[in-house]
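Re: that chain you flagged

S.,

Sorry for the slow reply, it's been a week of failed gels. I finally had a moment to sit down with the sequence you sent. For the record, here it is as I used it:
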Amino acid sequence: MASQSLRYLNIPVLIVCGLIAIAISLILGIIIGALLPGRATAAPDSLSGWVTTVATVVICVLTIVLAIETWRLRAAQTRQIKELMLENIRPNVGIELSSSHVSMNFMNVKITNSGKGIAKKISFEFLDRQDQPANAAGEPIVKVFHKLTMFRLGIQSLGINQGLKSFLFNFIELEGELGAGTFTPYVNIRIKFEDTEGNKYVNAFAIDFAQYEGFSEIGGDSLNILATEVTSIRQQLAKFGTGFDRMAVNVFNADDRTAEQQAQTQRIAEAKRDRAAS
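Prediction finished late last night. Pasting the structure tokens below so you have them in one place:
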């Protein structure tokens, strides 16, 4: 971009240099012609008039070139200011598919605005491999996306660095719906949106489900496992706090149990004697 602007800037400079060279050559020719001996001699007034005329023409040409360059620089500056203003309010809406922390079979979809401005009137268009409008009959995966209202009716507004995330599908149910062709769907999502000034933008994201074939994992997400264990501990402690459950903890040894049994036998014997006395 900079080299192209520099090339355009060199063209007027060459023109000006050429005009000045022509003017200087003309003046020198007139002066040399006047100094040569011969019949035709130029009067001093005629010579000064030629010099004045040529100088006036040169100044006029330079003024025109300077005016043109000033206009070009002003137009370029105006374009740069306009592009800078558009860049400061330009949104950038994208879509992302990612697996859930619970399991790789569960897929989440996330719509984000990573631009510098607010995105408005966001709409989604689904295309097939030939960039033709796709429907649920031709691409069954479109039906899966249309379960979410935002893909059917669009999003009215999405702020800067704001995102919308939702569960979309799991491969087990998708296999039940599509059969053996779980990894064959392909969809090209075209996202249309506007900025706050009404300027329109388009982003396109192609999703080929063949890239997910063969994915597997060992174990699970450590954070999810830790969260499950903490939840289980919290539930157990909640029962103890409410008194609806007891902790099965053995805090007696053999001597304690023998002493307790003797005391219990003694209390029973005393109770029998009291009944017999009465």
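What I noticed first: The chain has a mean pLDDT of 76.

Talk soon,
D.
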